[in-house]
């Protein structure tokens, strides 16, 4: 594999047919083991954040998106908390989107398609670059608004960190989604209760988190971090308002 | 001393509003987004021609930029309008999402420079050219008047795919061009008065009209002063600047922006990198100074030494020292 030419990575042929939830769980387990191995070899960057984001990303990419394809619904995923990249990349490797060994070989090398924070045009399955917190909910809204104007239905799931909710722009965007009744937007909050310097509730409390989203005009639900619960929350979305799914991390 | 010739005023925002309304009726994929300043920027006109494609995002500029980015990702043509000062609140969003991904978002800022004269320093953005031209992929333009505004924005919306920033004032578009008298070209500029042997003024935005008036004053005293409209800030009209440097001993940049980071720096870097030997002086808002409230625009220009008489006085002194 060539590093540094800036070209998108050559993909293995991914199997994106809709797998069962038990297959998604196996993906999460495999990716989790892989993350620990990588951490043991010095690639443990934002390990906790990657571990807690894993089941969310696995459900979205390996269940929700393929299922949409079966149902004829275009579904997009945006990882807003881009520092969970190792979790994302490891998952892509386990899904066969990236060739085995890609993460260890390519992560965070100059010019590599696997930058520390995913970049559009280089990183597989990345439609917008991230790394700066608080921006992707607005982008998700825009994607839905634009698609509506084109007469197309696109559903967008955006994965936010709980620390990221400190950013004011998240709430600007939450107000926009509610005002425009963007029911196609799902915000999934990785509620791992830690942010960069320590515990979220000690730094800037996020609770009552469900109530915050509700008070902005969203539907909100809190679930545990098992794939069945996350998938269940996505499947039971209904109505004409955007939904926040708060995923309480299973202690990894 | 004869007074400067009267400047004929037009309105940037009125021209913008009419143009956007027309473009929205002609282009089905055009979407206009504004942060609750639609009446002020002129974007409200789009309600008349394409009510479904003008979005008031509320007073939230960061969300405004991010939403426009998503609309561009969906394959439409978003145009963002707003006050320059507050659009810069979304600069990091512009940098990290729009510019980094090279998204097709056009940002048209009104009320830049000293144009919101009554509002005062909070609204009078003097740093936007510096912020925007430092980005990797965003093209930056500063039209002189309403005619140039229409040509510039229409060209960018129809023919340019990628991020661009257009800097407009409010109602202070001193007439420079007659209808149909301006042809836009990225990297272009317009020689309005042939460069003089001693001095050429390189001006941008509303200072083009002011510079023409100042040059007319000086000409009436026998000093031949050239005037060039540098409307393309990035890419810069390098050849025009170098030609002016060949023909004039002194180039004076004139801008309604800080002297640092704006046109002054654009010209300095061209002169330095090309080893041109013309001297340069900068007229603009100096470091350490903010704007001010003023009940009328011209008094504010006078207060900051940017009205035609003040510019002429400064150039006269510079020319005498050559």
TrEMBL record, chain A:
List cofactor names only: thiamine diphosphate
Q: Which reaction does it catalyse?
A: a 2-oxocarboxylate + 2 oxidized [2Fe-2S]-[ferredoxin] + CoA = an acyl-CoA + 2 reduced [2Fe-2S]-[ferredoxin] + CO2 + H(+)
Extract the Gene3D superfamilies matched here: 3.40.50.970
Residues in domain Transketolase N-terminal?
74-250
EC number(s) for this protein? 1.2.7.11
Entry keyword Cell cycle: no
Give yes or no: UniProt keyword Transferase.
yes
Q: Which InterPro entries match?
A: THDP-binding, Transketolase_N
What GO molecular function annotations does the UniProt record carry, in alphabetical order? 2-oxobutyrate synthase activity; pyruvate synthase activity; transferase activity
Keywords attached to this entry: Thiamine pyrophosphate, Transferase
Binding partners and assembly? Heterodimer composed of an alpha and a beta subunit.
Family to which the UniProt record says this protein belongs: Belongs to the transketolase family.
What protein am I looking at? 2-oxoacid oxidoreductase (ferredoxin)
In which organism is this protein found?
Aeropyrum camini SY1 = JCM 12091
Q: What is the lineage of its organism?
A: Archaea, Thermoproteota, Thermoprotei, Desulfurococcales, Desulfurococcaceae
From TrEMBL, chain B:
**SMART domains, A to Z:** Transket_pyr (SM00861)
Give the molecular function GO annotations. 2-oxobutyrate synthase activity; pyruvate synthase activity; transferase activity
Which cofactor(s) are needed, names only? thiamine diphosphate
The keyword Transferase is assigned to this record? yes
Keywords on record: Thiamine pyrophosphate, Transferase
EC number(s): the record gives: 1.2.7.11
> What reaction gets catalysed by this protein?
a 2-oxocarboxylate + 2 oxidized [2Fe-2S]-[ferredoxin] + CoA = an acyl-CoA + 2 reduced [2Fe-2S]-[ferredoxin] + CO2 + H(+)
In terms of InterPro entries, this protein maps to: PDH/Transketolase (IPR051157), THDP-binding (IPR029061), Transketo_C/PFOR_II (IPR009014), Transketolase-like_Pyr-bd (IPR005475), Transketolase_C (IPR033248)
Q: Boundaries of each Transketolase-like pyrimidine-binding domain copy?
A: 10-176
Query: Which top EC class is given?
Result: oxidoreductase
What are the TM regions of this chain, as residue ranges? Answer: none
* Classification via Pfam families: Transket_pyr, Transketolase_C
Q: Which PANTHER family match?
A: PYRUVATE DEHYDROGENASE E1 COMPONENT (PTHR43825), TRANSKETOLASE-LIKE PYRIMIDINE-BINDING DOMAIN-CONTAINING PROTEIN (PTHR43825:SF1)
The record's comment on protein family reads: Belongs to the transketolase family.
Assembly state and interactors?
Heterodimer composed of an alpha and a beta subunit.
| Name used for this protein in its record | 2-oxoacid oxidoreductase (ferredoxin)
């Amino acid at each position: 594999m060539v590093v540094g030419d800036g070209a998108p990575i050559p993909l293995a042929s991914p199997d994106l047919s809709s797998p069962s939830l038990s297959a998604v769980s196996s993906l999460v387990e495999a990716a989790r083991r892989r993350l620990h191995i990588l951490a043991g070899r010095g690639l443990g960057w934002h390990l906790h954040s990657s571990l807690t984001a894993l089941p969310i990303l696995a459900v979205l990419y390996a269940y929700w998106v393929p299922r949409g394809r079966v149902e004829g619904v275009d579904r997009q995923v945006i990882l807003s908390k881009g520092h969970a990249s190792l979790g994302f990349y490891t998952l892509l490797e386990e899904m066969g989107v990236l060739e085995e060994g890609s993460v260890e070989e390519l992560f965070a090398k100059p010019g590599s398609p696997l930058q520390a924070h995913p970049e559009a045009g280089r990183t597989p399955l990345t439609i917008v670059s991230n790394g700066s917190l608080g921006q992707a909910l607005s982008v998700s809204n825009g994607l839905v608004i634009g698609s509506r104007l084109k007469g197309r239905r696109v559903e967008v799931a955006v994965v936010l960190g709980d620390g990221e909710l400190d950013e004011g722009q998240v709430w600007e965007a939450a107000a926009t989604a509610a005002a425009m009744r963007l029911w196609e937007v799902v915000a999934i909050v990785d509620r791992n209760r830690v942010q960069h310097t320590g515990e979220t509730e000690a730094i800037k409390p996020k609770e009552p988190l469900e109530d915050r989203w509700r008070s902005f005009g969203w539907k909100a639900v809190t679930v545990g971090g098992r794939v069945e619960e996350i998938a269940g929350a996505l499947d039971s979305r209904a109505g004409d308002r955007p939904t926040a799914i708060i995923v309480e991390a299973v202690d990894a | 001393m004869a007074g400067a010739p009267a400047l004929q005023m037009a309105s940037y925002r009125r021209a913008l509003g009419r143009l956007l309304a027309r473009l929205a009726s002609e282009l089905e994929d055009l979407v206009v987004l504004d942060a609750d300043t639609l009446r002020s920027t002129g974007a409200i006109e789009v309600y008349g021609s394409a009510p479904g494609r003008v979005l008031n995002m509320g007073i939230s500029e960061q969300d405004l930029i991010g939403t426009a980015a998503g609309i561009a990702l969906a394959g439409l043509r978003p145009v963002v309008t707003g006050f320059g000062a507050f659009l810069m609140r979304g600069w990091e969003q512009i940098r990290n999402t729009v510019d980094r991904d090279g998204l097709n978002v056009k940002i048209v800022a009104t009320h830049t420079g000293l144009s919101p004269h009554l509002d005062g320093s909070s609204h009078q953005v003097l740093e936007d050219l510096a912020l925007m031209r430092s980005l990797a992929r965003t093209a930056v333009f500063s039209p002189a008047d309403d005619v140039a505004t229409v040509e510039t924005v229409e060209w960018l919306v129809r023919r340019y795919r990628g991020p661009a920033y257009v800097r407009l004032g409010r109602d202070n578009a001193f007439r420079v061009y007659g209808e149909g008298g301006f042809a836009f070209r990225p990297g272009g500029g317009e020689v309005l008065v042939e460069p003089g042997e001693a001095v050429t003024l390189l001006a941008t935005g509303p200072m083009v009209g002011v510079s023409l008036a100042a040059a007319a004053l000086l000409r009436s005293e026998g000093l031949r002063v050239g005037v060039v409209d540098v409307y393309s800030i990035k890419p810069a009209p390098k050849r025009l600047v170098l030609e002016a440097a060949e023909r004039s001993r002194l180039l004076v940049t004139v801008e309604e922006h800080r002297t640092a980071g704006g046109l002054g720096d654009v010209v300095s870097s061209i002169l330095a990198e090309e080893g041109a030997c013309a001297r340069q002086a900068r007229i603009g808002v100096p470091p350490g100074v903010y704007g001010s409230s003023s009940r009328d625009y011209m008094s504010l220009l006078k207060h900051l030494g940017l009205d035609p008489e003040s510019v002429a006085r400064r150039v006269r002194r510079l020319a005498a020292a050559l």
